[in-house]
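Write out a record, focusing on structure:
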Amino acid sequence: MILIVSDKWYCSTQIASALVDVLAGEEVLYLAGLARFSLSPSYPRNLKYASFPILLEPEYAVRPTLDQDGPEAYMRLHRCVEGKTTSLPPCDRNAVSELLARAEKVILAPDQNIINAWAVWKLVTTLGGADIEEKLFIVEGLLFYPPELIRDRFANMFQSGSTGYERQISPGKIKRFFDYNFDINSSAVLGKLYQSVCGRHPQHNMSKYMLQALYWLQEQEWVETEDVDQRLQQWPGTGRHAPSEFWMLHGLGSVLSRRRMMTQLFEVGLVEIRRENPIVEHSLLGYTISEKGSAYLGRLHKDCRDPDLPYRLEAWMGLPEEEAKAKISSYLRRFFGQQKRKQKL
């Protein structure tokens, strides 16, 4: 049996239609619905503050996300026979593991977003057990491609262990290495700073782009709430860096993360929402940095401001994995080491 795994169902339907003749006579199942599962970072507990900055290999737990059809996450499963697609009972975590074990060949078919390629790979290798890599293949990202191009991608798919295979997975690994280690150090070092300036707050967790957005908002003084998303999407940095191949990283965060980080900055008291003209009842609402936000930034090392971080991360993602990790480790040690020393003064 051949199992083709996609992060989105529309990818599976396009693939099934394009490969009818290519896979004739084979038992082929299509598994899709990555959003049904959450790859949650698992951080070690009880780390001493003296141990920071720290660099670790990321660890993730596969957890179900709640769905309107029930509390247990599932992935959609379909069988395609002679061009006809038939729905099968949805799969929970155990059923996915059983399918991966039964398959003779597992083909990862993510969409164009290179981060999703890593997520599909991580989910499959986590649920598939120790021997899963021996039967893994990956195709270059797919999204609304004509059938002939889909067939070409499958004819030239990459087997686990090949250079092409690693090239599909590595950028996502590199980004997750940065995110995981930024977050664990931020929780300790920037979390300690937040407590000293603002007190305790259960929702405080300063992400890499929340921090840069806070610097940006300080410089803007006031930004209409409806304009924030577009302004952050068109993030120029310092203008010294040209965008590279990873188009999905352009801007300060994704659509969802931009909205979430502004909400979080507001909830923890670092930004405020006020009217453009306080004495005019129906004037526009906008974000402005709060007194706590200004005090917080005033306690940061000057090098914590890094408007070129999205472009820097792009560049690292294009490097060989070990070289990228070395550069990221150096950056994070300096970033959090300098800040930790400043907080002692």
